[in-house]
Design goal:
Distance between the termini: 45 Å
Radius of gyration: 20 Å
Helix content: 40-55%
Number of helices: 6
Strand order of the largest sheet: 2-4-3
Number of domains: 1
Strand content: 5-15%
Order of helices and strands: EHEHEEHHEEHEH
Length: 160
């Protein structure tokens, strides 16, 4: 199933979610950015990196709509997800004071708040349902690591 999203209900979405872009940026092979061209003005814009990362994170936290009521829950689930899955940097940021030096980064609460109004086709789950799913994952991961450690300690994973 595809991940569908809508930004128009985000306050100032044109400024928060889209930035001017050049044709040269769009042609770069390494870019995975989403671009759009205004049919009337022919101006090219690029989807903001934070917006893009939040859109994809909706699947991990099972919150498809960011609202005034749930943006804090989205933030907390994102932090828990990162801690459990080792994905502590859902996006990259340019290191302060540098031009081409990047580092992994997580969302700030303010960034999530600025995306109130984001809608995706992700099905919302309750906190209880989400915690149950993540607990099952953590338990399986824990068991696998224990078994791997035992095999390694017994020499089963060590090539002869």
């Amino acid at each position: 199933m595809s991940l569908n999203w809508e930004l128009k209900n985000i306050k100032d979405y044109e400024k928060v979610c889209w930035h001017p872009a050049t044709e040269a940026e769009r042609k770069k092979e390494w870019t995975h950015a989403t671009f759009r061209e205004d049919p009337k003005t022919k101006k090219l814009t690029r989807l903001d990196g934070v917006t893009n990362a939040i859109i994809w994170r909706t699947m991990s936290v099972d919150i498809g709509d960011i609202t005034e009521k749930n943006y804090r829950e989205f933030f907390v689930r994102s932090k828990v997800y990162s801690a459990l899955h080792g994905a502590d940097c859902p996006m990259m940021r340019r290191k302060e004071g540098t031009k081409d030096d990047w580092e992994g980064a997580d969302f700030t609460l303010e960034e999530i708040k600025k995306h109130i109004g984001l809608h995706t086709n992700v099905i919302n789950t309750t906190r209880k349902q989400w915690i149950k799913r993540e607990t099952r994952y953590a338990r399986r991961e824990f068991d696998e690591r224990i078994q791997s450690s035992i095999r390694h300690a017994e020499g089963a994973d060590i090539p002869s």
